[in-house]
Specification:
It is a single chain. About 30% of the residues lie in helices and about 20% in strands. The protein has about 375 residues and is an alpha+beta fold. The chain has two domains: about 110 residues, Helix Hairpins (Orthogonal Bundle); about 180 residues, Sandwich (Immunoglobulin-like). Strands 1, 2, 3, 6 and 9 form a five-stranded mixed sheet that branches. The protein has a four-stranded antiparallel sheet with strand order 5-4-7-8. Strand 11 and strand 12 form a beta hairpin. The longest helix is centred in the N-terminal third of the chain and has 29 residues. The termini are far apart. One of its GO terms (molecular function) is ATP-activated inward rectifier potassium channel activity.
Amino acid sequence: MFKHLRKWFVTRFFGHSQRRTRLVSKDGRCNIEFGNVEAQTRLIFFVDIWTTVLDLKWRYKMTIFITAFLGSWFLFGLLWYAVAYIHKDLPEFHPFANHTPCVENINGLTSAFLFSLETQVTIGYGFRCVTEQCGTAIFLLIFQSILGVMINSFMCGAILAKISRPKKRAKTITFSKNAVISKRGGKLCLLIRVANLRKSLLIGSHIYGKLLKTTVTPEGETIILDQTNINFVVDAGNENLFFISPLTIYHIIDHNSPFFHMAAETLPQQDFELVVFLDGTVESTSATCQVRTSYVPEEVLWGYRFAPIVSKTKEGKYRVDFHNFSKTVEVDTPHCAMCLYNERDARAKMKRGYDNPNFVLSEVNETDDTKM
């Protein structure tokens, strides 16, 4: 009990100062920034304006949305006012009774703005309308109608695309808070639990990992965020997962694993970040999404396994208890992978016999040198 209280006290009051810097947060966001980017390179973002608008935050997107419509309405309002002013349709010019204006019932800038709004959004109240008197007004009407359709299509499409982005579907895929290391099938494995909170499946799911750490090459070059592939599997493989219930994925710690030379005592002193990726296709929209999370050494528990989470009710239904989703149970585990494999090799050698090729059996004649 005192051990847990001491651990909680250290984590609560000193955990923030000892927290490691991570590239990928627990919810999948990347902690990286780009510096000294040339001004010409920044212009590339405006060339791909569609992706740039989609990546904007909602507050900036809504600002652009409102500005685009209000700006276009006001700009064309000024143009309609200019047409009425040039044609002398305004009341201050005191037109004759038989004067035919370019646009009926435009008496000032306010009425010109209202006519611009009615034209672009196709309200059509019927009080203001274009006459056949001016070719300029007809051309301006056609131009505003076409430009209004383009603005509506772009802005509405951008909002719809942002709402339906598969990144939101990734929010309903959750990983366990910690990774654990224990024996599974007689092998030492690193295990992670992942769950789909929706009943709709992810088609063609594929899971894999990357181990990020700083390494030094034999030539003396220091590589920050050097990546090493980590293969994760379930009992049926690592592709086309049947993701209907929470799965426990595992990485076998063998001689080819970067965790092979780590031990329970040295794991907290290691400096690495394990990033786990899950790729799949959303069943309802056929859009590809990626879910990612990361684990630092403090979040890898040696000698633990996950508590059971799936049970069967009396009615014959399978029930998933998410209360135990990240709950772990302490189990007997070798304190290093090398110890486990050395122990298995020693047991195998005890069961086998070895021939000595230099051993020669020779007969010895016993003589009795003692005389009675």
